[in-house]
Amino acid sequence: MKLDAEIALAHRLADAARAAILPHFRSGLASERKADASPVTLADRAAEEAMRRILTAECGRDGVQGEEFGISAGSTGRTWVLDPIDGTTAFLAGRPIFGTLIALVVDGWPVLGVIDQAVLGERWLGVTGQATTLNGQPVRTRPCPALAEAALATTGPHYFDSHDGEHFMALAAQTDHKRMVMGGDCYNYAMLASGHLDVVCEANLKLHDFAALVPVVEGAGGVMCDWNGDPLHAGSDGHVLALGDPARVEDVVEGLACNH
């Protein structure tokens, strides 16, 4: 799957989001609370608006699904899925581990994904059937000989309900807990794709949270799946695993001891 025109468009979308976000980083920007109590800023909205303007002008028949402005239906079976700032809490704290997520989902399956870190100037691109790149250079996940040696990451335990939290802690107990990473949002998946982490485990994610991550991780040699080990798609329930070493999928699923 070449998708050359779509790749070029995704880069333009990421450039537009960067331009909207960077003036607000560490600026003391105020935030509001959305209905689910999560924070949102002017930067989130400006970045999504900038990307939507380009999509409307260049591929108006495609659908668009964004975190801040919802769904615009299309007629092509293709949907651009946008999260202008994944990690708004980190953004507000002045930590450059948030990211802009851009995905192209075709018939429910993610085929192209971008993770863009505006402050550090880092951009991961994943496309089905192609090697994932960071700023144009190929990246690879790393091998993980055993679950006990795995570096596990999650955005935070408070994002799990009590049931999911118990399963996460059961998995965590079988990994190298001295190397566990808390915080990071999409940046954890980028680090896994670049060979610096082994497992990311999260729950309650929306399509805009994970669609872009799938091609990035899998194009680097990793696997993304739900907590049962099944592939992620537009209908997935938000229980998300990323593994750098596909050989560890069964171990991680068993470690969660979960039947969703």
Structural class: alpha+beta
Low-confidence stretches: none
Task: Provide the spatial order of strands within the biggest beta sheet.
Answer: 4-3-5-6-7-8-9-10
Order of helices and strands: HEEHEEEHEEEEEEHEHEHHEEH
Give a quick summary of the entry.
This protein is α+β, with helices and mostly antiparallel strands. The protein contains 8 helices and 15 strands. It has helices spanning 4-21, 42-58, 88-92, 162-172, 186-193, 207-210, 213-219, 249-256; strands spanning 31-33, 39-41, 63-66, 70-72, 78-86, 99-106, 109-117, 122-127, 133-134, 137-138, 152-154, 181-182, 199-202, 223-225, 240-243.
Q: How does this structure look, described?
A:
The protein has 8 helices and 15 strands. The chain has helices spanning 4-21, 42-58, 88-92, 162-172, 186-193, 207-210, 213-219, 249-256, and strands at 31-33, 39-41, 63-66, 70-72, 78-86, 99-106, 109-117, 122-127, 133-134, 137-138, 152-154, 181-182, 199-202, 223-225, 240-243. By secondary structure, it is of the alpha+beta class. The two termini are 32 Å apart. It folds into 2 domains: 4-138, 2-Layer Sandwich (Fructose-1,6-Bisphosphatase, Chain A, domain 1), CATH 3.30.540; 147-256, D-Maltodextrin-Binding Protein, domain 2 (3-Layer(aba) Sandwich).
